[in-house]
Amino acid sequence: MSTIQLTDVQKHFQRRPIIQNVSLSIDSGKIFGLIGPSGCGKTTLIKLMVGMLKADAGHIEVLQQAVPNYNLLQKIGYMAQSDALYTDLTGIENMQFFAKLYSFNKVERAKRITYAADIVQLTNALSQKVETYSGGMKRRLSLAIALIQNPDILILDEPTVGIDPALKLTIWQELERLKKVEKKTILITTHVMDEAEKCDELALMREGKIITHGTPTELKTLYNAKTFDEVFLQAGGAKL
Ligand SMILES: Nc1ncnc2c1ncn2[C@@H]1O[C@H](COP(=O)(O)OP(=O)(O)OP(=O)(O)O)[C@@H](O)[C@H]1O
Q: Where is the ABC transporter domain (predicted)?
């Protein structure tokens, strides 16, 4: 069953077409990867799905409800590309602030914060002010905040940028667990080709269009390619 459905979606900025007739179906319980070069429209497409931007044409449904829809916000965990954090507060204060937006009681809230901080290995840095965090630590805190909510759908815009390989592996293991055990639907954007391999399905974007989509194996077979760099080049994309 599809959790996110886009039909002929279009978006312009200052009359420039940024998203051009995109139709896409993202199945529930899958990790779906949106891949494409910088500026091709990945973040714009995600913001349209979350309801932060309004499409100029076309139709978007999430969980069979038309977007934008206030009720859907409780069901989507969104990690933006630029970190929306309060830098003069500590890590834990940031987590508490966002956790209070959701309908947890005090005990659940504390449990969710402990779980999320542990996944991104920030437990020992929670009492520090965010202004003292490195870029990677801020990314990890943003990811932790998206995880607090325990949503049906996780939409993560480049979640592993600036994160070291060992922690990246831990984060991917958790995404796999969330998919398998908790049946979450996860949408990520990435430039990183080895992350593309880990997705169940992929859509490759270029200049506001989906140029091809399928499972990693299907795409490699289709383009007779050994790597995703090759798939992307064969499909007509620029080098990432
Ligand atoms: N609010 C805006 N006003 C005008 N142009 C915008 C706006 N937001 C994005 N754009 C333009 O739309 C295009 C797509 O941007 P978008 O951020 O969606 O790309 P992206 O694929 O996510 O890139 P990256 O991988 O670098 O984050 C870019 O040319 C960008 O400059």
A: 4-232
